[in-house]
Known about the structure:
Elements: H1 2-7, H2 9-30, H3 37-42, H4 45-52, H5 62-66, H6 72-86, E1 95-96, H7 108-120, H8 137-147, E2 157-160, H9 163-174, E3 180-184, H10 188-196, E4 213-217, E5 236-240, H11 252-265, E6 268-272, E7 298-303, H12 305-308, E8 316-319, H13 332-343, H14 349-358, H15 361-388, E9 391-394, E10 400-404, H16 411-422, E11 424-425, E12 427-428, E13 439-443, H17 448-461
Parallel strand pairs: 1-11, 3-4, 3-5, 5-6, 6-7
Antiparallel strand pairs: 2-8, 7-8, 9-10, 10-13, 12-13
Amino acid sequence: NIFSLKKNKPKMKFSTTALFLSMVSAASAFAPANTNVNSIHSNNNDIQSATSLSMSGVTRNPNFAKLAGGYLFPEIGRRRSAYIEENPDMADRIISLGIGDTTMPIPPHILSGLVEGASKLGTKEGYSGYGAEQGMGPLREKIATVLYDGIISANEVFVSDGAKCDIMRIQQMFGPGVVSAVQDPSYPVYVDTSVMMGQTGEIAEETKQYENIVYMPCTAENEFFPDYSSLPRADVVYFCSPNNPTGAAATREQLKGLVETCKERGSILVFDAAYAPFIRDPEVPKSIFEIEGARDVAIEVNSFSKYAGFTGVRLGWTVIPSDLTFNDGSLVRDDFNRVMTTAFNGASNIVQGGGLACLDPEGQKEINELIDYYLENAAMLKEAMESIGFKVFGGDNAPYVFVQLPEGKSSWDMFSEMLEKAQVVTIPGAGFGPGGEGYLRLSAFAPRDSVIEACSRLKEAMVATA
């Protein structure tokens, strides 16, 4: 449009410069070998100023600069790829006991719910567009009745695309002005999202801990259950049971004490119950809301990922009781609802159909069979590591086996040793925080034949290591 170019001379100047740049680039591509193209660039001030436009004038969020290294699981992938690049003949021998990604196919009844959800979209009668950001009413109701036996209400359930995403949404709701407490070791998302939100100071080089986060030591000596009452108060306490990475499952008495401490201190407890279906011990609660008084202090996040192999399907939920308030009396649930309705359009209609099928009697039976399969894998891994001579935790009410290494042995060094000697990928405990140093996490989510082979290799290759 010639008129617009005349009206906006600076725009025309930029366009001319950009055109000239492209011409020089083309000339460079076809120039004879002895042509000094660089001299063209150095003699043209317009090109230099145009090149500077490739860098924006936007300041980087300083909180992202505080993050230590890369996120754990991509780093594992990077090291695995580097090993394969150096040892291409070993590529087919790699067995992953690393990331907690399910491997068994989605069972038939649950799959039928997904298929039906997709098929409806192809009919005039069944088609649906945007739904409620909080989730389909029937699914919220079913979660409340089937999984919580009515101890929560359907309107306290927020259906989402997964617990990990909801943790970030919870952080957005709390904002930068809170102090968070985390188990040490713990799932990296709690710490990293706290840093991203600007809640922390810098990381201390010596301790590998961030300023303004309360780290709650979870060690073999305290049975991986922290004593929050002996530590500085935090506004928000993140707690996962059964735990990732330690595999420890908190008892009713332990959780009762944690709830009481949070109530006394005015802390909000964010309870991550993503591994609840692995609990087989009747003394271990599957929900924090089984504990008296929890409705006054707790939020619970959960997910279908490990229930039904939905790691790639993406469906979870968060429960925020109507009893839970901020210190001004306003409902926490209302603010979380604002986050959901502002920044989320609701979980996929198709996926929610699969969620409904999960909660049918047939779906519950399929889920129990999947959980039994993975727990059998965990038992095999635990037995194998114990037979080598390692001290082992978890693996009973959780899909993770936490292996204590010989004193002075680095978890990253042991990760490398197992990869090189047995071609088995694990997760270094140090990746879950400084408290994880000296441990390895093994995941039971691999296929059965892979678990059997990994156990055989590890027994043969690592027998002299423990």
